[in-house]
Amino acid sequence: MGQYWRSKDTKMFSGQLQADNFRQMASILPARVVRRSSRSRPLERGTPCTLPGAFEVNGVSFDTVQFLDSVDTTGMIVLRDDRVIHESYWHGYDATTHAISWSVGKSFVSALMGIAVDEGAIRSIEDPVTRYAPELAGSAYDGVRLKDVLQMSSGARWNEDYSDPSSDLNRFGQVRTSGGSVNAYCAQTQREYPPGTYNRYNTLDTCVLGMVLRHAIGRSLSDYLHEKLWEPLGTEADGYWNVDGEGIEYAGGGLSAVLRDNARLGLLYLHEGMWDGTRIVSAEWVRNSVTPDAPHLMPGKRPSAQLPLGYGFQWWIPDTTGVYSAIGIYNQFIYVDPSARLVIAKSSAFRDFARSPKPEHYRMEEHFALFRTMAASM
Q1: How many angstroms separate the CA atoms of 124 and 145, rounded?
Q2: What is the four-CA torsion angle of 12, 14, 17, 22, rounded to 10 degrees?
Q3: Quick one: pLDDT at residue 367?
Q4: Cα–Cα distance between 25 and 149 in angstroms, integer?
Q5: What is the rounded distance in angstroms from the CA atom of residue 32 to the CA atom of residue 240?
Q6: Distance CA 151, CA 137 (A)
Q7: What is d(CA 48, CA 128) in angstroms, rounded to the nearest whole number?
Q8: Are 159 and 169 in contact (CB under 8 A)?
Q9: Using an 8 Å Cβ cutoff, are 124 and 132 in contact?
């Protein structure tokens, strides 16, 4: 869910509103353009609905408008039965604003992995990483199954503590944003757990998936994203993917897009990989992506996981009700509730995000409670 960068003397997790920075990431850091679809068309509109006035968390009532303001929400779009029923923007954002999605982009990378598997560019997710990225021989990823990396269970030693300036995540971010090489950083990792035994959130795992993809498809992630997702999904606007000093896309969280185009990924997964009657990604991949299949991946507190949320192929599973979500730092979301036929995409710039490890500096429980209330009432 995150990374570190410095721009205009502004640090992440500093308590400052980052809304202006988050819509300028394509100019703050180098980026590749992902051209809008040549078949671009707007999302269908449904009967407008208002947001619920309040929602509850553990018996405590929250006013919806006040909560959205408190987490510096910049945009939210709600679709039911494939139609937009609510769309709102704040802090100078609108439907044309490109917002950095942070780790929501990991779920786009997962979809690209699934397509590469469907097409045979990647033979199997049972293959070792080093079959496709031999430069990782001798690293923590040497011999690790692609499946374990997809499930954030690579076993690599890693500390993604956003509030700790000396954490692996923050040191990695300094290398990346100062023109360093993501690939070279991945090659220096060391192993801590046996692969496939412990679920630890690790942005570097997704960077490794990006390495694998580039080798397997023989071209840039931006080109592949345009052809396989942006074009067939009829995206309304260009996207932008930040790159490192070698011009390689930052797979761990560098994708910026308009909120409506983020929502399209949720719709694609809601329909198990189908879009307008065309198969984009296999239904098997979609189902496996959002279905934990081992004890260390199941929702709930467990000794074999860092966080209480369940995990699939770069998608979070909050509980056992069938919902799933892409999540990025500062409270970015693509939330899908198949039983309610509901998709919610949200962008935010929560100024107090990760200032400490305390729940009030993440607000995950409140967001999921709000989304559940929206699914029941809108």
Answers
A1: 9
A2: 0
A3: 98
A4: 27
A5: 6
A6: 20
A7: 48
A8: yes
A9: no
Q: Are 184 and 163 in contact (CB under 8 A)?
A: no
Q: Are 290 and 315 in contact (CB under 8 A)?
A: yes
CA dihedral 116, 122, 123, 125 (to 10 degrees): -90
Neighbours of 155 (CB within 10 A): 23
CB 252 within 8 Å of CB 3: yes
| Residue 10 banded pLDDT, cuts 50, 70, 90 | very low
- The pLDDT assigned to 12 comes to 67
* Most distant CA atoms of the chain, gap in Å: 56
pLDDT tens readout for residues 128-142 = 999 999 999 999 999
Residue 358 burial (CB count, 10 A) = 10
Q: Provide the whole-model pTM.
A: 0.95
Q: Is the pLDDT of residue 176 over 80?
A: no
- Of 279, 235, 281, residue with least CA distance to 258: 235
Q: What is the mean pLDDT of residues 197-212?
A: 97
Cα(172)–Cα(160) distance, integer angstroms: 10
Tokens read off for 371: 């989304």
pLDDT digit string (tens) for 227-282?
999 999 999 999 999 999 899 999 999 999 999 999 999 999 999 999 999 999 99
Cα 107 to Cα 92: distance, rounded to the nearest angstrom: 27
Contact of 368 with 334, CB cutoff 8 Å: no
Is the Cβ–Cβ distance between 366 and 62 less than 8 Å?
yes
Eight-class DSSP state of 229? I
pLDDT band at 1 (very low <50, low <70, confident <90, very high): very low
- Give whole-number Cα distances, 263 to 104, 200, 274, 330, 368, in Å: 11, 27, 14, 18, 17
Paired tokens of 50 = 């208002």
Rounded to the nearest 5°, which phi and psi values hold at 311?
A: -145, 145
CA distances in angstroms from 308 to 165, 195, 300, 353, listed in the order given: 24, 19, 4, 18
Q: Is 56 left (phi over 0), alpha (psi -120 to 50) or beta?
A: beta
| Structure confidence by residue, pLDDT tens digits, 11-49 | 667 788 899 999 999 999 999 999 999 999 999 999 999
Each residue of 95-106: pLDDT tens digit? Answer: 999 999 999 999
The whole-angstrom separation of Cα 211 and Cα 234 is 27
pLDDT of residue 3: 40
